[in-house]
């Protein structure tokens, strides 16, 4: 799969996840309002509101991760990196890429293990409804995988962009810096 197609799939998935998070947020708000109304009017809470809200909150928090990364809405501090030469920025990006890949693999492996364990043990919430926890854990796993794929792809594009900025003679110029105009050509004396 080409990187352009992967980027499109990641962006479409991130938008779908973000929209799903919005719908879950709306559901959680409506459930909370209904629960407060039920307690006010009937002196009785809606059964399982806390369980459902907890699971929805987990999903809401993590479904937006990849979308924030695709749109560049994560907090980034470039004070150090922006002052480095392109060669050093490329080296820093390579280190970041390796760290992201390592952390991504570890988290994916751990979350997959937790998901399989929750399914094998038929894990449920502790409240009255005893809702299965695996759907929330599946959301965590899928959203983290999408986040790390998007982040790693973005870092690869950064490295390729820095590599493309290098000039032919082996020196590097910071991205966006225009070349100095050369001296006007001398007239040939005949």
TrEMBL record:
- In this chain the Tripartite ATP-independent periplasmic transporters DctQ component domain maps to 28-157
Q: Tell me where in or outside the cell this protein is found.
A: Cell inner membrane
- Tell me yes or no: is Transmembrane among this UniProt entry's keywords: yes
What membrane topology is annotated for this entry? Multi-pass membrane protein
Q: Name one Pfam family in it.
A: DctQ
User: What broad class describes the main subcellular location of this protein?
Assistant: membrane
Region (Disordered), start-end ranges: 166-190
Which keywords are on file for this protein? Cell inner membrane, Cell membrane, Membrane, Transmembrane, Transmembrane helix, Transport
> Which superkingdom is the protein from?
Bacteria
Mark the transmembrane ranges: 12-34, 46-70, 91-112, 132-153
Q: Which family does it belong to?
A: Belongs to the TRAP transporter small permease family.
**PANTHER family the record matches:** 2,3-DIKETO-L-GULONATE TRAP TRANSPORTER SMALL PERMEASE PROTEIN YIAM (PTHR35011)
* Protein's name in the database: TRAP transporter small permease subunit
Give the originating organism. Answer: Prauserella oleivorans
